[in-house]
Amino acid sequence: MSRRVVIDLAQFMRSPAGGSALRRRWLDGLARLAPLHARAVAGDFPPRLPSAEALAEATAALAKGAFGKGKAGIAVLGQPGALGSLRAWLAACGGEGIRLHAAPPEDEAAKTWLALLGPPWIDAAVERAAERGVRVAVATGRVDGETIEPPSKGVWIDDAHAGDARLGALGLATLATLGAAGIDVAGALVGASEVRAQIDGPPGVDNPAWSLARALRLCETDLGRDSVIHVAGEGRLVALAAWAARVQVATVGTLRRDGTGRALPAVAEAGDEEWLESLVHGPRARVIVAWTAGPDVHGGVAAPWIACATEAGQVVLRVRLGALDAASVGAAMTLWLRAMACLALLEESEAVPLLSVARLYDAMEAGSGTRGIDEARRVD
Predict the structure, then answer these.
(1) Which of 187, 234, 248 is nearest to 2 (CA)?
(2) Is residue 359 in some structural domain?
(3) What is the CA radius of gyration of the chain?
(4) Cβ neighbours of residue 296 closer than 8 Å, sequence gap 6 or more
(5) DSSP assignments along 39-55, one per residue
(6) Which residue intervals of 172-292 are DSSP H helices?
(7) What pTM value is reported for the model?
(8) Domain tally for the chain?
(9) What's the CATH number where 27 sits?
(10) Do the Cβ atoms of 269 and 231 come closer than 8 Å?
(11) Which residue in 66, 119, 230, 278 has a CA-CA distance of 20 to 30 Å to 266?
């Protein structure tokens, strides 16, 4: 089992709001998830990692002429969401010479730009930069086999997920940029691959993605808590917590199945006294996803802050990275992407009892229509 990232549900299991019945519900639900798990694995979410060969080639192409004596690094242009994952990586792992632009840059000194294609302003900025002799790397995927020509004095990076706020986090363009900045992308691939093997395994207590997704779903259905606050245990994890919140919104959505609205997740940093005051004296209907790093299982400097929130009756789920390094961040992102996909599948499946899911899919594939679905419900 990978120790790059650990899901700690101890406080959730001890929650006075649920007690032993909550743990039984959690275990019972995990035992019935095989049909949904097959869909999660087949859905390829998160997508397969780029090959080491493609990554090495793209990294070398980006770094060429961008770094070294008198060089100004790389300017990355993209939408705010697309830049969020890069910001999370750079904040947690360091890396130098990368500047992120969510609007047309002014007075940008970098002679190498990476464009995550999207809105028209990026295309216009790329054209102007190329006219000035800036070396532009364009990251986008092929469309129906179309061959994309890079700009003059530029390079094209074939990444179907470039610009995607979620899947772009582990895509070729992001990882190549990190490699050019000196971050250990080989370690990132190792960490992500280790966790991928784990979350593709059976949906039991040893599968951290399903364990976390099931806990979050029970917080909403059994405890009435759908207001999630992502708390970063230290400043270098704030951008990762913000990325996780964005992925949650994009994957699970802002509406429940009954059409009512769901509270948007918030982001806070441990030590923020204003947030702590809100959690201690505010409504007892929050779920805290605490992002911490390092060997201290109690949360290090974040422990007193989290303890106060726990004593105030808030439920805490912890995502603990083994260290602030590329392997652990890659593992955490991989795990969170799959956990959110699992959470979305759980909510979708609740149109019928979990025991009926296998029969439901059989009925749909057989073309039985609603009659077959109703029969599946009655059997269970």
Answers:
(1) 187
(2) no
(3) 22
(4) 303
(5) HHHHTTSSPPPPPHHHH
(6) 172-180, 185-199, 208-221, 238-252, 273-281
(7) 0.88
(8) 2
(9) 3.40.50.10490
(10) yes
(11) 119
